[in-house]
Amino acid sequence: MDDAAHALAGTSETIAGRLAIAIHEHRLAPGTKLIEDEVSDIFGVSRTVVRAALQKLAHDRLVTIQRNRGASVAEPTIREAREVFEARALLEPRTANSAAMRVTPSDLARLNQHIVEEHAALHAGDLGRALRLSGLFHIEIARIADQDTIYGFITQLVARSSLVIALYWQRRTALCESHAHHALLRALADRDGAQAEDLMKGHLLDLVSSLDLRQKPPGQKSLRDVLLT
Amino acid sequence: MDDAAHALAGTSETIAGRLAIAIHEHRLAPGTKLIEDEVSDIFGVSRTVVRAALQKLAHDRLVTIQRNRGASVAEPTIREAREVFEARALLEPRTANSAAMRVTPSDLARLNQHIVEEHAALHAGDLGRALRLSGLFHIEIARIADQDTIYGFITQLVARSSLVIALYWQRRTALCESHAHHALLRALADRDGAQAEDLMKGHLLDLVSSLDLRQKPPGQKSLRDVLLT
DNA sequence: ATGCAGTGTATTGTATACAATTTGGCGTTC
DNA sequence: GAACGCCAAATTGTATACAATACACTGCAT
Asked: Which residues touch strand D (CB under 7 A)?
């Protein structure tokens, strides 16, 4: 490649992937405007390709597109945040159960690697990467369950969860639930579907309770809150 | 409008909607090729808009896009067909339960109207329209449950179900489950969530058992089946 | 006949040009 | 000084031109 401009050229899929990872790792904050010209310069492609990528992300609710106003990283409302976790509560426990029946040794190895890397990232202070690995753990379980459709739903929900966490996570919950994943891994290794299902259910409940979903997001405090302080 | 060519002009959303309805009503059969130039002529817009519409439909798995080979109406495999109904079984019963708690008189009226219209369409011999109304009944219940995220999932699954039915429905099952919807409506009217949940679970089981998911789809019969008749 | 290479057409992929719309700033007026 | 209207810059929406690819068909050799 002779020109730095298109050092990162790619299809709309790869560009959507890069953006999704950046969002997942909290390097692109909710609300960030995504201007077509800028993005196309960065990746060295035309706006056409970028538009396709943005539309895909919009369909996954990772970005919001308003007609004639462009795209920005989505800012889920409290209501959406609750819905995302309610949907996860509906899908993931049963999926973990199915996964327990089909899991192979290489699956277990991969899951274990996720946990190790997540731990390493945490110690290295790379919170974004730790967060993404934590999400990948859930996605990996869905993949093991071998149900493409549900896998797709969970992938989308995990990505959106990352946005929810960016907006509503209260840092005083420091534990960051790494042993929850450990326990899940053990249940899977034991092929104990019922146990995996219960653990997943509890884990998701822990996750929501580590969020502050009782008031408006930091940036969008209600008028009342602002005026009557 | 002075020109018939763009009598149906619209945005990519409306075009995707038109295509989706046509697919839902089995006026576009699985496998039908969707050529950008043709579609753009029909709706009087440029290929740009049509491409966006097709990509949206592809994301919903109603059409398949292969690079450099274009888009065609999706042909779900048996595996996908099973997955779609497994996902529905995971989501819809609980959703029906939630709907029972929130349903309003006007919701009930609308549901009832769906049933009536479905019946009328059946008697008029318009099977496609009946099928779409039947799907709308399920979607309406999800809407009543007031969970946008799950509503979106169910909408997508119902649309895909229509493709599955086009491919795998065995006509000898004539009943077409109209009283199942009646029973559901009664349970909702009674605000009996548990009953609604059970009915929905059973209804979905009836649906899958009216399909023939044990062999290859009609068009793709295995070589063995063809040769050893 | 069968298989294969080459060629032309049909179709999709991408970039770019232009139109439409929004946004922010500037000056005017009250 | 605040409100309003207007203009310029930035940005998105759509169409179109051109490049790249796949597909069907013909003719040829075996």
From this structure: A 33-37, 47-48, 51, 65, 67-71; B 11-12, 45-49, 68-69
